[in-house]
Design goal:
9 helices, mainly alpha
Amino acid sequence: MNRTGLLIALGLAALVGIVFALWPELDLRIARPYYETFVDPNYFALRVSPLILNLRESAMWLVTLMLVPPVVALVLKLILPRRPLLISARAILFLIVTMTFAPGIAANLVLKDHWGRPRPIDVAQYGGAEHFVPWWDPRGDCPNNCSFISGDVSAAAWTFAPAALAPAPLRPFAYAAAFAFSAGVGWLRMAMGGHFFTDVVFAGVVTFLIVWLAHGLIYRWPRTRLSDETLERALERLAMPGYEAIRGLFAGKRTDQKM
């Protein structure tokens, strides 16, 4: 998570943003081969392919499974605050915060519900009833859960966060795997008629930028950098009142039973 990654992400966003703003029909051209994949009675027929559906579901399950360890470690710490964390406190904060803010808030709560860009399968050019709009225009016909940006690709691109925590010698390979995984999920969503190319690209860029910023705040920048010990002590202070209350409640019940 260095400046090189930031410059690559910003450069990609600028290049794609400018080109597809000047020639928005490129999004339609890229989507057309998937639309022309026809199996009676379906255009965008890959959206009903069992293989494609299973791949999509498997990809989302993989992301979910990667989030399970930090969530379980956090819950156990809140239940048993005197026990040491099973995972680094900073890693828990980093992974949960980036998942919450990237796919959770930025993609699904802010953009997809307020940026009215119709999906490829819904535009008039491909048999739908809604008007095509370029990526930069939020004034489309879609009322909610719209095309810009892809929630699935944002969730897939979140894997840059665990990749950033890999041991230094393995980190380039982890980043490459995260990129390949995000690109693969992006292809699935385009093939299913769920998103345009620009929806996929900006989902990856927005998510990467949130991961990059969170990594800097938690790990790199001296003024905001946190320590595992400080965070763990804070969790203990947060959890101890509830722990003591529950412990006292059970102790009182045992006393009543003896009497």
